[in-house]
Amino acid sequence: MRPPPCVRRVQKGGAPALAPDALAMLSRAAAASAAGLGVADLGLPQRGRFRVARARQLAVYLLHTAFGGSLSQCSRVYARDRATVRHACAVIEGARDDPRVEAAVTRLSAALCDQRDMLLTLIDQFSQASTSPSQGPCVMTTKQKAKKPKARASAAPPDDHAPDRAMLHLLTALCEARAHGARNDLDGAGIVVFAPRKGVTVACSRAPVSAAEALVARGLAQWEDAACARDLRATPVGRAFLRRAEAPPQAEPFLAQHARLAMRALETGAAPVLLDDAESPLAWLARRKDKDGRPFLAPAQIEAGERFRRDATQAQILQRVTANWEAPMGSSQRGAVVADVAMDARRRLSRACEAVGPELAGLVTDVCAYLKRLETVESERGWPARSGKVVLKIALGRLAQHYGLGDVATGPRAHATRHWGAEDYRPRL
Questions:
Q1: How many other C-beta atoms lie within 10 A of the C-beta of residue 388?
Q2: Residue range 209-228, pLDDT digits in tens
Q3: Rounded CA gap, 52 and 43, in Å?
Q4: pLDDT for 289-341, tens place per residue?
Q5: Which of 215, 260, 263, 348 could form a disulfide with 277, with the two C-beta atoms 3.0–4.6 Å apart?
Q6: pTM over cut 0.85
Q7: Domains of the chain by start residue, with CATH
Q8: DSSP H or E run through 270
Q9: DSSP letter (8 states) at residue 429
Q10: Using an 8 Å Cβ cutoff, are 32 and 55 in contact?
């Protein structure tokens, strides 16, 4: 006898799981009870009154967040468009800014998960006590689940590296900002990772249960509520492991764990080298946004600061922390020999400081050459807090203008062709 649609076994271990309609019924009943309405009012095809529509939005949100259903699954269960489901989740997510709504939704989600767990416990005990399909008509036994067509017996063996890839994929998703994983109760396929996207919490990744178990066993992730297996989150050990795993081949894993390493070309046409993006204060400012959502520093300003840093390094004006082994051992003027490259760099630095001005030249030298933090520069000069980045932006703008760098190309569209000649052409004298 086939089991009713409210209960079904979907996991490999034979553990029962509630059907999507049953989970939708639980969320609909909880939202209707919280709004003081009837359950039938939330199942009507029309929108209804504002109170009914808001309660239906809460039911969709609970099905999406508490039970791990995707937007597409929620749209199929509630017979609504996917955009409507997304709008409903956005409305409830925005309402949770109110502390009272946040507390109420949190308690309601916890109560729904407890009710689901109690139902699954009762169903599991009932299925274990059943000795035949006729004695347990509400569950599907393990033997019935194990029956498969003989054609599937010749399936290819699983790949040994698949769990490792799935584990790394799940850990990468969990390490996003404000991301957490939950068990997918709609289809029992595994773990669903939720993360905020443009103000809406959406399912951004999926992984099998074995990947989550492997992460928890190795200490890379943990369940916040271990008894009910809720909210899978990455641990600090897992974040460090991910940084080591994503390190470039040229870098040491331990160095990649504590630095932001990337392959970049210092000059046009040069071979890329391994750099630490977090070493320069300009890298932090480059990731900042203004109130309009645009980058705080323009690409021309960042390139001007990096060019000033390269000239300062070649000019050999920075203090050494080790011995100088470049000069010959027998030289009587050890350390006083300056190469032509360093002299040219010092001339370029002198012209750049004159273009920026004496008031801002010291700031550019401290930040771009000596890599001082803006907080340190503000403390040394007695400036107000968070004023150094504004002054630095002005200084970098002057420096970019001196180097001839700009965000928009200027000049004539094309030049007149002076002469066309063959490869062996020689002008007349």
A1: 23
A2: 888 888 888 888 988 865 55
A3: 10
A4: 777 778 888 888 988 998 898 888 888 887 766 666 655 555 444 445 567 88
A5: 260
A6: no
A7: 7-142 (1.10.1750.10), 163-243 (no CATH), 280-320+339-403 (no CATH)
A8: none
A9: -
A10: yes
